[in-house]
Amino acid sequence: MTRMTFQAAVAMGQLQKRLDNIGNNIANVNTAGYKNRDANFSSLLSQQINTEPDPTNPQGRLTPDGLRVGNGAKLGHTNFNFDQGSLQVTDRNLDVALLEDNHLFQVAVNENGEEEVRYTRAGNFYLTPLEDDQVMLVTSDGNPVLGAGGEPIVLADNMDDLKIEENGMINVTRNGVQAVEGQLEIVEAVRPRLLEAAGDSLFRLSEQSLENYPFGEIINGVGLADVSMESGSLEASNVDLAKQTTDMIETQRAYQFNARTISMHDQMRGLINQLR
Fold first, then answer.
1. Distance, CA of 240 to chain centre
2. In which region does residue 200 sit, left (phi positive, over 0), alpha (psi from -120 to 50) or beta (all else)?
3. Distance (Å, rounded) from C-alpha 138 to C-alpha 152?
4. For the segment 26-35, what is each residue's pLDDT rounded down to a tens digit?
5. Is the Cβ–Cβ distance between 202 and 120 less than 8 Å?
6. CA–CA separation, 143 vs 148, rounded Å?
7. At CA 160, angle to CA 88 and CA 120, rounded to 5?
8. Strands 154-156 and 161-164
9. What would the 3-class secondary structure string for the chain be?
10. For 179-223, how does the pLDDT look when each residue is reduced to its tens digit (9 = 90+)?
11. Cα dihedral angle (57, 62, 65, 69), rounded to 10 degrees?
């Protein structure tokens, strides 16, 4: 494989990853709490090709001798855009939207027999029945939402009404009497770039992040006075569909250009082989 073909093939593979990322953003344009992912590229190592005999640096020359040939680019990493999405009014008591940047709900997820705390901006919650006439606040996937002390929020079932207040308190009405019976535990992502996607609009802390930073430098608890949310609303995805469509067209054309490079190179080699 020649250098030209190698560079084009590397670029096509990385452009395909960017297309996958754009497709994922577009697919979640209507997903509550979804955060847009931006793909960032970085250059691969360049190779120095010397084309001049010694002395390698003739007198008066200011640039290096020879040629520096790159090996293409790679998808370095994807960054989450944590800008707040628009609010959608649903008038549903169990829907709640966080109003402060980098604030997150806590969710307990049991995966492969191990329980892990994950984080989300999606506030479309539900009540699932338990034993002894109790109900538990869960996400749309059935994962328990964590409250004060990092424990699941469990309530008695015989309620007339339920409302989540602006500070995260869960106000329950029974027989015409209101009482606070639970509280959403909100945390702040101090270093949101260290969070990684865990699927279903959930984020998690990677082992590498915890090795390099103490937990408190990544995730901090938020006091009641600093919590701000809106009940009866959901935070929509912050994906800009117009921008994603433009990026998709741009990436597809770059992919086509690289594919054309391989095709033209193959034709040129065919012409050379036909020479007598």
1. 14
2. left
3. 9
4. 999 999 989 9
5. yes
6. 16
7. 35
8. unpaired
9. CCHHHHHHHHHHHHHHHHHHHHHHHHHCCCCCCCCCEEEEEEECCCEEECCCCCCCCCCCCCCCCCEEECCCEEEEEEEECCCCCCEEECCCCCEEEECCCCEEEEEEEEECCEEEEEEECCCECEEEECCCCEEEEECCCCCEEEEHHHCECEEECCCCEEEECCCCEEEEEECCEEEEEEEECEEEECCHHHEEEEECCEEEECHHHHHHCCHHHCEEECCHHHCCEEECEEECCCCCHHHHHHHHHHHHHHHHHHHHHHHHHHHHHHHHHHCC
10. 888 899 999 988 888 888 888 889 998 888 888 888 878 888 888
11. 160
Report yes or no: 239 and 34 within 8 Å, Cβ to Cβ: yes
φ, ψ for residue 107 (rounded to 5)? -135, 135
CA separation, residue 222 to residues 23, 66, 181 (Å)? 34, 58, 19
* Cis peptide bond prior to 152, omega within 30° of 0: no
3-27 and 241-274 helices, crossing angle to 10°: 160
Tokens read off for 35? 């955060």
pTM over 0.85: no
Angle formed at CA 84 by CA 80 and CA 87, multiple of 5 degrees: 135
Neighbours of 66 (CB within 10 A): 13
